[in-house]
Amino acid sequence: MRKRLLWFGLLPLAPAAAQGPSTSLQTPAVAEAPPPVAAPGADEAPLAEDEIGFSSRELNYDDNADVVTASGDVRMIRNGYHLRADKVVWDRKSGQVSAEGSVVTTDPQGDHAYGDRVELDDALKNGVVENMLLVLEDGGRLAAARGTRQDGITTLDHAAYSPCAVTDSDGCPKVPLWKITAVKVIHNPDRKRIYYRGARLHLLGLQVPLLPNFSHPDGSASGGTGLLVPNFSYSRVNGAEFALPYYFALAPNRDLTLTPHVYSNVAPAIEAQYRALSSLGVFQVQGMITYSDRQAALVGASGPSDNEVRGYIDANGRYQLDPWWTVSGSLRLATDKTFLRRYDISRDDRLRSTVNVERIDSNSYLSIAGWYFQGLRSTDKAGTMPFALPAIDYRLRLDDPIVGGKVELEANSLAIVRTDGQDTQRAFASARWDLRQITAWGQELTLTGYARADIYHTDDALASVPTYGGLNGWHGRGIAAVAADLRWPFVGALFGGTQRITPRVQIVASPPTRNLAMPNEDARAIDLDDSNLFALNRFPGYDRWEDGARITYGGEYALDLPNFSARAIIGQSYRLSDKPSIFPQGTGLSDRFSDIVGRVTLKYGRWVSYTQRFRLDKDSLGIRRNEADVTVGSDATYFTAGYLRLNRDISTLGEDLRDRAEVRLGARIALLKRWSVFGSTVIDLTSKEEDPLSIADGYQPIRHRLGFAYEDDCFSFGLTWRRDYAQTGDARRGNTFLLRFSLKNIGR
């Protein structure tokens, strides 16, 4: 069948320049590349598969030979393939298209190929290009003396590749930071990869031979199966480490990464990560396994060790079954207490595994969950770590108000089991009524009523801390409370902005509650601060309830100016009854007058942020809690500091209430646009007077980190030094060096 010729009319002539050397990565100085749309006039009617869109300044047609010769800004288009050249000869009998002079071709993926001379078929898909430059969609470039494209696959002889910029900010040519040269290069857009034969890497003037058969992504997508960027590090315990990840693209929604780790001082390890995405949700699992020596997880331990299989697993997932039901879970387990720290995977001191089934709609919430904890601290005993299964929580908000207020119902059940220790089962049902009104004077008044019924069962009650253990057997209690909370905001102008002063007072009354007969599993970490000052129950969980009558008073302040804001809150409470409190001494709530707590937050644009939380002794105004965090700078250059001191004079009742002090510092400085220097430190300032069990004795560095990095559009490099001062078992103190470098598109 003869092809129909569509003439789109004349286009203005644009100047063209000659091509550079055969392996130059510079873009030829031609007019703009072919647009990703049809030639002018093509929008009048879509082209059929057997039609070719065609335009030029001059056109000659040889009737006898059936040859079309076009010159002067020639443009052709067919099925998403574009051709532009100074001159095109089209033999309609053989279907051959010859183009010369500032030739540019574009495929449907948006990749541009430049050349001096091109031989194509009349589908504009397959052909040969002399002195070829292929510019990929992501900006990467392939230059070759000769290139062939067949069925969308481009093969280049004696070629060079680089994703780096080839011009500077002024548009002048520059040598790319790195490039790959090869005897043969193949670009497969379907697999989105570039393959090399006989390749060499040129980096900063150095040549490095690569694998005989080497490939990497072309930058248009993830790139499929292949090697990832290797990691280099050195630590005192494991010695030099080399890790080379290999990525498997199992399917568009599933992948697997295997990473062998080779060490100079210990046996190799293998790490794996599997990820899957479906229409319902996402799931991933990763882990690591090795055979190495292990010492007892004791602070400062050293000496004989045993070789054994060691490792960890970390999995999580979430599935949305329908608009209301969700299933999520996580699994975190390690073979021993020091594996994660020794192999620099995590510094968590507890691992939590969970499963949770949830249903959420506009007025109700249901959760059926379970937890398991693994303790990694040297003092943790496996038998005392709890299983929580099941943990059921249901909440329902009634649509219709009762006496003008909103009502929320809650039912909760929890079972905690230990293989060596206290077992607890708990269930309760509660109702809460809230009525919020604005008075004629602009006061915000909230009235609250609360009622709850609990039932507990305990076996092997904790004897070492009686206030945590409760009594063995079945026990029940009833809880009730009423509260009135009044806020009175005053708003006015100040310094060209707006300020708001809000006095606040709250009264809460609750009859005596049976607390000490019940075990305390979730209300141990008691600390008065600005977040719970006006709470109905200032214990953090359900197992303890603050009874009696009290009045809480304080104030809030807010100031909003252009590029500046300030927030502050301060308050105190007074217990109206003289009944002894169950709050431990030092928590700020044990006496009738509570300590004074507050928070101040200052922000200046995006450059400065400062937050300070404090608790002052009610008698001496001594600082019992001082926590400050400040950040100054931009994303590129910044300084951050944090300070925490808990000086509550609490007895060593349990680890949840121990005093401590620490300082955290961090900074990053951008240099010369591409370079940066960074560092951080954590220092334990806890003294023996604050915590008799502390080993810091007033000053003990925990960890230092210092490094530098370089990053541009196609290359990044960094070197980090870290020193750890804590030692537990075979997770020893010492130096670690991490070398990181990355070449754009290289890896995977």
Automatic annotation (TrEMBL):
Signal peptide segment = 1-18
Q: Where is it mostly found? A: membrane
**Keyword annotations for this protein?**
Cell outer membrane, Membrane, Signal
Q: Which InterPro entries match?
A: LipoPS_assembly_LptD (IPR020889), LptD (IPR050218), LptD_C (IPR007543)
Q: Where in the cell is it found?
A: Cell outer membrane
Residue span of region Disordered: 17-44
Q: Which domain of life is it from?
A: Bacteria
Keyword Membrane in annotation: yes
UniProt domain LptD C-terminal: residue ranges: 309-675
Under the subunit heading, UniProt states: Component of the lipopolysaccharide transport and assembly complex.
Described function: Involved in the assembly of lipopolysaccharide (LPS) at the surface of the outer membrane.
Give the UniProt family note. Belongs to the LptD family.
The protein's matches in HAMAP family, at most eight in alphabetical order, are given as: LPS_assembly_LptD
Return the protein name.
LPS-assembly protein LptD
